[in-house]
Amino acid sequence: QTKRSDVSNSEYAKFVSQEVPRDEVSILNSVFSHLAYTFHKNPSNTEAMDAYNGIAFTIRDRLLKRLEDTDSHFISINAKRINYMSMEFLIGRTFDNAMLALGLRKEYSAVSNTLGFNLEDLIDEERDAALGNGGLGRLAACFVDSMACCNYNGWGYGLRYRYGMFQQQIINGYQVEAPDCWMDNPNPWEFPRPEISYKVKFYGNIAKTPSTSSGYTWENAVEYDVMAFDTPVPAFGTKNVGNIRLWSCKTNDLFDLNRFNAGDYPGATGNMVAADILTYVLYPNDNQNAGKELRLKQEYMFVSATIQDIIHRFKLTGKPWSEFHELVAIQLNDTHPTLGIAELQRILVDEEAMSWDAAWDIVTKSFAFTNHTILPEALEKWPVPMMGKILPRHLGIIFDINLFFLQHVEKSIPSEREFLSRISIIEESSPQQVRMAYLAIVGSHRVNGVAQIHSDIIKATIFSEFVKVFGSDKFVNVTNGVTTRRWVNQCNPGLSALITETVGDESWVDDYPKAHLLESRVNDEDFRKRWWDVKQANKLRLATYIKDTCGITVNHDALFDIQVKRIHEYKRQLMNILGVIHRYNTLKKMTPEQRQDQVHRVIIFAGKSASGYYIAKLIIKFINSVADVVNNDKDIGDVLKVVFIPDYCVSAAEVIVPASDISQHISTAGTEASGTSNMKFVMNGGLILGTVDGANVEIAEEVGDDQIFMFGVLAHEVDEFRFNLRYHPDPLDANLQAVYDTIKSGVFGNPDEFNPLVECSHGPGDNYLVSVDFASYLMAQDAVDALYKDRESWITKSILCGSRMGKFTSDRSITDYAENIWNIEPSAVDA
Ligand code: F58
Question: Which is catalytic among the residues 73, 201, 454, 571?
């Protein structure tokens, strides 16, 4: 029993109920106080990093106060809580975002000037929190922002990886990975919560024990203590603050004193190391299942601590179990947290003495599942023997869930064995595998895709059998969205000023459909000029960034054509670079005068490849080899530049996204579940060149089909084209053949090295239909050039597109989840 201070102490209560001062002088004093007493700094040795820390800690004070108030508010009204479970949160930087959310950016700018620093420079001192791979992790970060801004009682739950997404260096054109040691500096945004910790067990065996209600106990397991770290999520326009609770293993208790005393020093720390390793590293795979034992342990550790925490908080309400689902919603961000379903069922039947059916009713009413991919290699499966070794009790529970499920199917739709084996949670392969998506569907009351086309596809393909069993209503769509706080207001101050002026105030920042008012100014000459100037200024900022990071000089008057995202065959960066070679060939054939007449382009790539993904890494090398030749060709000069920006991350995206004239979202139709950068680019006044895939489809619906450059085969045609490529290939497109000839001539380096890329972009190896879409891709690119020459039409399109993106704010996505899946109402702290 720990001794507690008298919390009813009135002086203490008075102190915490005070508003934290917001005036410049008080802020400055608290910065001084942190510098002197938190960081042991004085005016003569305060450097930029110290100033950043000192200031950040005063912001932290203000956030913490709001976090406390938010928590007390929701507890006092017994509000239902959303628990957004995600193995990834790609947060990026917090400093600028928090100042804007608190409405104190001007004050902090003045304070940093007083300290002798420019606020912009201090912003660059912060390292990204990169606890995610790409779209899925960034979506989770946008969603916690929106839950907080929209006054929902929502928390994110995840893992506190010691090393986040690796840092990408480009050496001789090749990707080289370096560890992301983001914890080397003090992190002002997290609060260790040693008092919030849970035991998580692995291994052991199951014993039959008639004395327990379920008849089973889990014995001889290895136990770890898992501890919470809280990261408050600043929210704009409200006093509510969100929270991301990340778990990490406690290692201190695992020191082996006996071994230490026996002189076995390394042995004494063996268990500590084993525990620490659990959250050492984020698996750097995007749309690929790692299938490693350590990954399974990470998933379970995350899930177990989270479910225990949810139960702990539920019990504090004093409500009966039958009301659990009225107070708790659990959203699974893809299948990685799906073990949560088995974990809640286990706790209820083994530890809370509940009947199987009563427990299952609670589980299925609480969980909901979001699918983000149909790529077969990304669908998670775990070998039964591996799961049985690490989580013996959960495996037993999963087999029981499956048994009851198949019995239900047999009863409700008389079915053949074939059907049952197709729909079974256990795949009858050798070894058997647990199909995690199936477990997630069976254990959830709603399943959603992330864009309309994707939601339709999953119902018609990978989950079609489940639609037969559960009916269509269980499967819904929630189109993704992005937070306008970060992706417009923070990253594009020039554009934000124009929107604020048009709307009349800043209310658009958390009510983005208001940006439609921009449309009323589309014919206003002065406005059009300023719109164009904002884009040019953002391009200049990016040109400077490119100079700093790549050493390449680009002209910001050129058309900026951007493709930034994870490198993956289905995203077809390869088609883009083959198109660049075609452009280069075409330019080379022209006279210098003709060349100068062409639209000047800077083609910008960025993105990481999974470290073990050979073809993706080769694509990076290939882009850099082509860039080397093109950029150093005197004939070409400024007419064409190709840039690969290293180490794409959230903070780089904040510089890149506002600077596009055109961005490319050119996945093979049906493969990109949604995409979210497409939304960010258009909100920032960029046009898009895309396939009929993911959220491109809905963007086109909103902004108008004729505003967006679309090309390529349709999703339902893909299988037939694949089949034809394999068995009845058409002759190769002449332009593509010419591109291959250029590669084979050796101008870009050893053609043998790049031959695998030739092989996987035509004929039977062309799984992603590069050769099929190439001609229509080039035509779409020609249309882009033609429009860019007509500047006035370009500006019109850019304004119209930018103004019609109201649907794609993550506030709308979260409201959709709240209304259609979570059944939850917002409530503001100060209401
Ligand atoms: C992405 N998935 C989708 N997965 O590819 C993208 O279309 C969508 O917009 C986005 O989710 C948000 O819905 C994605 O990023 C991963 O990175 C996983 C990480 C963990 C391992 C498996 C892939």
Answer: 571
C-alpha 731/C-alpha 712 separation (Å) is: 18
Instruction: Indicate the CATH number for domain 77-93+128-479.
Output: 3.40.50.2000
Whether 572 is catalytic is no
Q: Which residue has the tokens 């106080």?
A: 33
Q: Please identify which of the residues 93, 201, 566, 572 carries the catalytic annotation.
A: 566
Residue 64 clears pLDDT 80, i.e. is over it = yes
Q: What is the pLDDT of residues 787-806, one digit of tens each?
A: 999 999 999 999 999 999 99
**Looking at this protein, which amino acid is placed at residue 40?**
H
Instruction: For residue 287, give the ligand 1 atom closest to its CA.
Output: 23
Asked if 62 is an active-site residue, the reply is no
pLDDT tens, position by position, 102-141: 999 999 999 999 999 999 999 999 999 999 999 999 999 9
Closest Cα to atom 9, ligand 1: which residue?
Answer: 675
- CB of residue 136 inside a 6 A radius of ligand 1: yes
813 touches ligand 1 (CB under 6 Å)? no
Instruction: Kindly write down the DSSP assignment for every residue of 217-286, as one continuous string.
Output: EEES-EEEEEEEEEEEE--TTSS--EEEEEEEEE-GGG--HHHHHTT-HHHHTHHHHHHHHTTTB----S
What is the pLDDT confidence band of residue 4, given thresholds at 50, 70 and 90?
low
- Return the bridge partners of 447, or none: 369, 475
Let me know how long the chain is. Answer: 831
Alpha carbon distance 141, 481 (integer Å): 11
- pLDDT for res 247: 98
Is 480 a pocket residue for ligand 1 (Cβ < 6 Å)? yes
Q: Verify whether residue 589 is a known catalytic residue.
A: no
State if residue 287 touches ligand 1 by the CB under 6 angstroms criterion: yes
* Token pair of 10 as six digits: 């009135």
Model-level pTM? 0.97
Q: Which fold has domain 485-714+780-806?
A: Rossmann fold (3.40.50)
Residue 250 pLDDT class (50, 70, 90 cuts) = confident
| Ligand 1: centre distance to CA 740 (Å) | 32
Could you tell me the residue ranges of all domains in the chain?
77-93+128-479, 485-714+780-806
